[in-house]
Amino acid sequence: MNYIFKSSRETKQFGKLFSYLLIRIPPRKKRARVIGISGDLGAGKTTFVQGFITAIIPRAKVTSPTFLIARVYPLLARKKHIYKNIYHLDLYRITHIKELQTIGFEEMIANPYNIVLIEWPEKAKNIMLKTDIYMKFSHIKNEKERALLITTKEKKITTLLKKSDLEGKV
Ligand SMILES: Nc1ncnc2c1ncn2[C@@H]1O[C@H](COP(=O)(O)OP(=O)(O)O)[C@@H](O)[C@H]1O
Ligand SMILES: [Mg+2]
Predict the structure, then answer these.
(1) Is the CB–ligand 1 distance for residue 50 below 6 Å?
(2) Taking Cα atoms as reference points, which of 54, 86, 47 lies closest to residue 70?
(3) 5: Cβ below 6 Å to ligand 1?
(4) Ligand 1 within 6 A of 46 CB?
């Protein structure tokens, strides 16, 4: 599925819509829901994630976790969310896959109640394999336009995205 955003506000807004759509889908049985987000620097990956997280946690201050690799945003139990945590990872600076062990990556993706958003997933092949939704942002035409391509084998997600009728015109 392809989308075009004409401003960072539109990209953020799409992050919100996508998050509302995703948190209503039941967790996977054995592992977390993993979303890989690719694109050049400045393509809008973090902007999308900001929309995604603040839709559920309005007060969250979402900044790029580049120097920390990972940040966790716990969801409040009293709000009856199915999911318990959103993780935001940025692998841009990792040089070795072993660095993922230090942030507890395996535990993170083994828990069905986690949603894991990963910028630069292509830095690690086994992460690409564990990604169930893949997004690719790119710069187009002018300074403020971005294109987004979403691929997923999850039929439910495809159906919901199609139903939401956002394609090509957010
Ligand atoms: N349509 C757009 N979508 C997202 N960001 C945009 C858009 N137009 C301009 N921008 C700007 O581009 C930059 C994107 O930064 P960021 O989301 O951190 O990118 P990335 O995480 O991919 O490196 C921000 O400064 C943002 O204001
Ligand atoms: Mg970023």
Answers:
(1) no
(2) 86
(3) yes
(4) yes
How far is ligand 2, taken at its centre, from the CA of residue 160, in Å? 26
Q: What is the pLDDT of residue 67?
A: 67
**Whether pLDDT at 168 is above 60:** no
H or E segment at 26?
Answer: none
- Which conformational region is residue 59 in: left (phi greater than 0), alpha (psi within -120 to 50 degrees), or beta? alpha
Pocket test for ligand 1, best of 7, 38, 47 (most atoms within 8 A of CB): 47
> Percent of the chain having pLDDT more than 90?
65
One CATH from 3.40.50.300, 3.40.50.1980, 3.20.20.70, 3.90.650.10 for 2-142+155-163: 3.40.50.300
SS (H, E, C) 67-111: CCCEEEEECCHHHCCCCCEEEEEECCCCCCCCHHHHCCHHHHHHC
Domain boundaries, the chain: 2-142+155-163
> Which range, of 48-52, 79-83, 156-160, averages the lowest pLDDT?
79-83
Please name every residue paired with 133 in a beta bridge, in sequence order, or none if there are none.
Answer: 35, 152
